[in-house]
Amino acid sequence: MTRDRCVDFLRAWAIVSVVAGHWLITALRHGSDGGITAPELLADVPWTRWLTPLFQIMPLFFLAGGHAAGGSWDRARAGGATATGWVGRRAVRLLLPTAAYSAPVLLAVAVSAALGVDSDTLALVGWAMAMQFWFLPVYLLVSALTPVLYGAHARWGLAVPATLGALAVAVGTLSLTADLPRLGLLNHLLVWAVAYQLGFCWRDGRLDGHRPLALALGGGAAFAALVALGPFPLSLILVTGEPVSNTDPPSVAMLAWVLAQCGLCLLAAPGLRRLLAPDGVRRLVGPVGGVSMTLYLWHMLPVLVVAAALYLPGLAPEPAVGSAAWWALRVPWLLLLAVLLAAVTAVVRPVEGALVGRYEQARPDGARCRPWLLWPGLAVSAVALTRFAAHGFAEDGRFPALPALGLAAGTALVLLHRGRGAPPAGRPAPSALEEAA
């Protein structure tokens, strides 16, 4: 009853919006050579870039994630938990579902490559199945840094996100003006950590009063000015051909949008809590949040199923991308994909739950931890996930042996960081209620 259902709603809404956004902009065509091509809607139909701020709501996920993680770490620390134990538990719950997704995808890539499937087609499919992976190493690292970030928050409060934001501005400016693109990669962590840190501040009541309005107006005005004056584009999703991207890495304009969206969310939070008060509404939000990781990981599989069943044999209607007929067909397209994803989730989710359950039964929370296994495992996993995010599961149509080995090794180290057997005396395993919180 003490759970903030607004936070649950924001995480669920963010995931559903990302999934719907990816589906909406995915365009497929039956190629003249018998294969499938994927025109880029945002590049071919420029006005659609105005839609991207509506669907780029990952700031809300990081904001809600920081709110939830701050409470979880605060309770765990009060109960005597170590940083290694807490970080390891959260890492397992991210990496096990990711491994359950990646293993069959990598197996399919290996078999397809061995059978001589066209390399361009395999590379396209491999990219589609990994396009969502950018989020995983970022969230893994931010979660791993939670004890440090929360400690800084407890001491300095709003000065922490302000400092992180200033560093992000400096990094973004230098990467553009001094032509240091690799430096800009730091903003993958800095920009999203600002939203995560604001989640701590939201939970502690440091964003009450006029501050949400200031964030919304200040961030919105800064975003509009940066886009109008340049060099930043309007699109908050990567568009081929644009000289500057707002997302890869996150730009100063994206930082402004993060602040604006967080401010708008905080302004809307009281009204959302009233809407979510009825038990029936809460029961609708809860299941979506419970399967959010599954939805996020597997949501491009239905696209491939429809592509193979309808587009590959040339059965699907193919009006011009961006035409009125094409937009009208988006309705049955989205409905069909939603039905297929629901079926995939019904099959996959019990498997994920069984994997996590068996692991926690064999290596219960509170058992002896080995930090010398956990932290290298997190680092190796983050590097492998970053590689998949950048190049897909089949770069140049080949099996990605090194990233696959890295993900397997990193996940194994994280799983092995916790010893077998019962928790140490005086450190009981968490109850079901504590797990839910």
Q: What's the gist of this structure?
A:
Helices cover 70% and strands 1% of the residues. Mean pLDDT is 90; it is low at 426-437. The protein is an all-alpha fold.
Widest β-sheet, arrangement of strands = 1-2
- How many H/I helices? 20
Silhouette? globular
Question: What is the number of strand segments?
Answer: 2
Helix/sheet category:
mainly alpha
| Overall mean confidence score, pLDDT | 90
Walk me through the structure:
With 437 residues, the chain is mostly helical. The protein has helices at residues 5-25, 41-44, 52-55, 58-78, 83-114, 119-128, 135-144, 146-156, 159-177, 181-184, 187-203, 211-229, 252-275, 279-290, 292-298, 301-311, 324-362, 371-391, 401-416, 432-436; strands at 29-30, 36-37. It has a two-stranded antiparallel ribbon. Helix 1 crosses helix 14, helix 9 packs antiparallel against helix 11 (187-203) and helix 16 (301-311) crosses helix 17 (324-362). It is globular.
Helices and strands in order, then pairings?
Layout: H1 5-25, E1 29-30, E2 36-37, H2 41-44, H3 52-55, H4 58-78, H5 83-114, H6 119-128, H7 135-144, H8 146-156, H9 159-177, H10 181-184, H11 187-203, H12 211-229, H13 252-275, H14 279-290, H15 292-298, H16 301-311, H17 324-362, H18 371-391, H19 401-416, H20 432-436
Antiparallel strand pairs: 1-2
